[in-house]
Amino acid sequence: MGRKAAAAVSALVLTLALASCGERPRKTGVTSAGQLISATVRPAPVPAPSGKPVLIITGAVTNRNDDTAVAFDMRTLDALATVTTRIHEPFVEKDLTFTGIPMIDLMARAGIATTATKLQLHALDDYKVELTMADIADRGVLLATKIDAARIPLSAGGPIRLIFPAGSTLGKNKDMWIWSVDSITVG
Length: 187
Prior knowledge:
By secondary structure, the chain is of the alpha+beta class.
């Protein structure tokens, strides 16, 4: 796929993701580097966590629910987790069913800035993975909160895991799979 076609697909995915968050997107586009190139209407507010946050998104986000970040509790993430997929999990080497929120939808809900081009995911064990906006344009890239319809236990990489769709080039690299995600920095 050429750069123009990839940018058009990314723009369409982003527009659909923003529309699913209750927004009315204006004309949007994504550069070949995956950078959002026009503004949209502000997404619906994210409720403040009712307890300890399980995910904090900082950096180039505009829909903050505290002074510096967008914080999510498990209840809010579960409410956003509307996509279920069955994939071959490369570490346990068997097919599992995950439920989660597409990363592109999560970023739209966080109100990513138009200048955002990359994300750094951080895990409880201090492991880090960096993705571009183009990497998460595929709605099959999920931040999963459930495995086989149950919460993901910490012993299985929970409570939040990054999941790649079947056949994903990026997902073939086991180093990109990150478990126990606790924060995302948008840059």
